[in-house]
Design the sequence.
């Protein structure tokens, strides 16, 4: 690749990464926005036939909206990351989500932070890794290799949508168990419709994660007209509260996901706040 082309592409990528940062952290600030919203029962599909959870069912009392807000991540909770409340543009209503296989719907709900039936309150956060320190020399002074490295670094940002859903009674364990079953049943892929747009998931593979009373994680591979990109989906339950995390990294999409891992720092920080 000619040096001038690499440099122009890198400059454009830097602009894109800044836009992504503004988008990912452009939700309401932790101090200015409204608190967590009350969920009107959550989604009705995908949870009624949920299997029994392996965790003891204690009839947990749902956290109140204020308690859930206190348990949600805030700026400073995750070192090396920016945290902000999700805004209206990040919301997808439950009736805007469908799947060609009904059993896969809990996975779609988890991807977009939509609660299952029995939820009493919901909060959402956007968490993004801090951009790496800028290059010490200008792009015009870089070699082709250095410019290509700058291009790759500009895309190396991981953005995570974190949703906390507070459930009453046994609804939390049921929702968690239902998600695990859906992920296993839909390992071969499915097609979701998100606000009218098709989203093809070609595979779901299990990952390792710890935290809470029970937790699970998966890598989802999306196919967009032949271009494949990985997403990381994590679920963590603490008593009646279920946290879901959906992460993506543009650089990982370009590289096939080799260096894109489960956002353990974000998961650990959220698990700590849930107690």
Sequence:
């Amino acid at each position: 690749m000619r040096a001038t082309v690499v440099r122009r592409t890198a400059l454009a990528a830097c602009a894109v990464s800044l836009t992504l940062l503004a988008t990912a952290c452009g939700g309401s600030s932790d101090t200015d926005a409204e608190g967590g919203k009350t969920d009107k029962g959550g989604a009705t599909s995908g949870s009624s036939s949920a299997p029994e959870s392996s965790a003891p069912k204690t009839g947990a009392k749902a956290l109140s909206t204020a308690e859930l807000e206190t348990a949600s991540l805030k700026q400073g909770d995750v070192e090396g990351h920016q945290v902000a409340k999700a805004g209206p543009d990040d919301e997808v209503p439950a009736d805007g989500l469908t799947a060609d296989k009904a059993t896969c719907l809990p996975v779609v709900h988890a991807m977009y932070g939509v609660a299952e039936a029995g939820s009493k309150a919901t909060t959402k956060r956007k968490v993004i890794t801090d951009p790496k320190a800028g290059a010490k020399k200008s792009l015009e002074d870089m070699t082709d290799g250095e410019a290509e490295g700058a291009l790759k670094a500009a895309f190396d940002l991981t953005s995570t949508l974190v949703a906390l859903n507070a459930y009453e009674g046994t609804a939390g364990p049921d929702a968690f168990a239902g998600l695990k079953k859906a992920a296993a049943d839909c390992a071969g892929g499915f097609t979701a419709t998100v606000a009218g747009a098709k989203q093809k998931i070609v595979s779901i593979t299990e990952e390792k994660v710890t935290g809470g009373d029970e937790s699970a994680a998966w890598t989802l591979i999306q196919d967009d007209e032949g271009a494949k990109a990985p997403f990381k989906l994590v679920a963590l339950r603490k008593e009646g509260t279920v946290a879901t995390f959906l992460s993506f990294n543009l650089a990982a999409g370009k590289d096939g996901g080799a260096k894109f891992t489960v956002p353990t720092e974000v998961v650990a920080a959220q698990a700590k706040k849930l107690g």
About this structure: Residues 52 and 174 are 6 Å apart (CA to CA).
